[in-house]
Amino acid sequence: MKRVFFIALLLLTALPAWGTETRLEAPGTAARDLVIESSTDFAIFEPMLRAFQSGHPDVAITYRELTTNELDDHVSAACEAGRFVADLVVSSSVDQQLKLVNDGCALALPAEARAGLPDWARWREELVGLTFEPAVMVYNRAYFTGRAVPQSRFELIDLLRESEDFIGKIGTYDIQASGVGYLFAFQDALQASTWGRLVESLGRNRARLFCCTAEILDRVADGRLLVGYNVLGSYALQMIRSDERIGIVLPSDYTLVFARAAFVPATARAPELAETFISFMLSPAGREVLTAQMRLLSPIDGAQELARMLADGSADARTFRPVAMTPALLVGLDRAKREIFLQEWRAALPSGDIAAGSP
């Protein structure tokens, strides 16, 4: 009996723990359940969930938070097995989301759940963009007092070559652990002639690598890092509301912009409710929550709202390069191409420089 119990315990502990789960009970009498699996921090997404519940008091929400790679693995396995995983899947790793949809893991959405979206923020009838988010540089204001802040990749490369102050003091994503980090890096390689020189400069300065945006922002704010590269602008915009230690730069050579991609899984238990949630996020009321409380913005009016929010002329729509939801994104997920890209990355930025504590 003890042996059976021990084996059972081993099996249970061997099962993967999929993220952090938060339950928001229905404000009224619960009659419906909505399960969301997402790569967005619950603290960021909570205002939208509560706003939705205020208009749908009979809905209880289970929110499961995972990293982009964990989410992709979890949803992919559930799709292949034909089992329920969630009613709505939201991820910042747009390329991984597009592949899941392309593999037949999503339901078609009604026209009202896609209304108003620009072409770059939707694909077929299944995948939609919910946010408008730039990839930005962040910097420690105290260090740069009296110093010129780099406004472009060219200026950042020059700065990293001219000063030894940044050795071990610049941070970016570990693109092997972060799906959105890989997406940004691969897009940079396609977009910029500076990519090779930038990676070389990051390696020479022993850049620190992180899985998650919050880790980079915290370290830039307290001075453990002086610069963060390719950071999610939405998280940075949220942070500067209450923390003046950090500054933001939208690179003037070009600024990548992406939308967190959402779809309703083919095995969803409450697909109509998930569609209603998407429609709410894209509605004027939902966009108000995005702008005022979440600092994520919407693909529908994000460029104008970002310009209003920064009010310093740095949000120039002419420099925005949206990461379009097209099959071209799948190129970066090709196993052979991905491995070659990661090999080049590892050669420039050895794994030993991954920050302690990062998955």
How would the blueprint of this fold be written?
Blueprint: H1 2-14, E1 20-24, E2 32-38, H2 42-55, E3 59-65, H3 68-81, E4 88-91, H4 94-102, E5 122-123, E6 127-129, E7 133-140, H5 141-144, H6 153-162, E8 170-173, H7 179-191, H8 195-204, E9 208-210, H9 213-222, E10 227-232, H10 233-240, E11 246-249, E12 255-258, E13 261-263, H11 271-282, H12 284-294, H13 302-310, E14 320-322, H14 335-348
Helix pairs in contact: 2-12, 6-8, 11-12
Protein described:
The protein has 359 residues and is of the alpha/beta class. 42% of the residues lie in helices and 18% in strands. It has 14 helices and 14 strands. The chain has helices at residues 2-14, 42-55, 68-81, 94-102, 141-144, 153-162, 179-191, 195-204, 213-222, 233-240, 271-282, 284-294, 302-310, 335-348, and strands at 20-24, 32-38, 59-65, 88-91, 122-123, 127-129, 133-140, 170-173, 208-210, 227-232, 246-249, 255-258, 261-263, 320-322. The strands form 2 sheets. A 7-stranded mixed sheet has the order 1-3-2-4-13-6-5, sandwiched between helices. Strands 7, 8, 9, 10, 11, 12 and 14 form a 7-stranded mixed sheet that branches. β2, α2 and β3 form a beta-alpha-beta unit. The radius of gyration is 21 Å and the shape is globular. It starts with a helix and ends in an 11-residue tail after the last helix. Mean pLDDT is 87; it is low at 1-16.
